[in-house]
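Box 3.1 A note on notation
Throughout this textbook, protein chains are presented in two layers. The first layer is the amino acid sequence; the second is a token string describing backbone geometry. Keep the layers aligned when reading.
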Amino acid sequence: MQFAEGTGSDDRSQLNLVNANQPNFRTINPLNYDARHTINLSLTYEYGQGKDYNGPTIKNVQILSNAGINLQMLARSGTPYTEQVAPTPEALEGQPGRPVTKGSINGARKPWYFRVNFRVWKDFNFKVGKKEKGDDRRECGLQIYLQIQNLLNTKNPVAVYRYTGTPNDDGYLSDPASLSAIQSALNPQAYRDQYAAYTDRGYNYSLPRRIYLGAVFSF
């Protein structure tokens, strides 16, 4: 749990407040990275080898010796953002307008963030070099692993539009003040479709599921 509050989240915060005509420059507000709650849970199970092995065998072969699995679950409450009174047409070029703040600075919160990561591996130990009396050859290790980040492919919003509080709609298309501009377009439905495609941008979400297959060699 944390309470990250102050008069500005970075070195340009006060300049932005001046440009936005804010009346008070010394008010304490939540900072942009204030995630009030963070929960991390990591579960690992690993097999040993030799007499410490308690897994399945095939013809006395310890097939899962030095193998393991890890499941990591992360949850974080939403970081703050500042709401605004009216929508800003993010998909239109040359549209002047300065957003008018609604409520207090960073007075609203984004949705919670959830993520599950998965990793499974197996270690192989061996010696290299010419075998001599005493067998003091160099010991080496090879680990083969499969890693899946964002196992459930969760779409976590990392950025939202200040008017709607959602990552895929800035509120312009549903605003009554925008109706005349939409209806005057050459193809109003195509106008709506292309506008919606632009505002539902991928970088408003966390990274999708990623799968890695790799090896680590140690000596």
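The longest strand covers residues 113-128. The mean pLDDT is 88.
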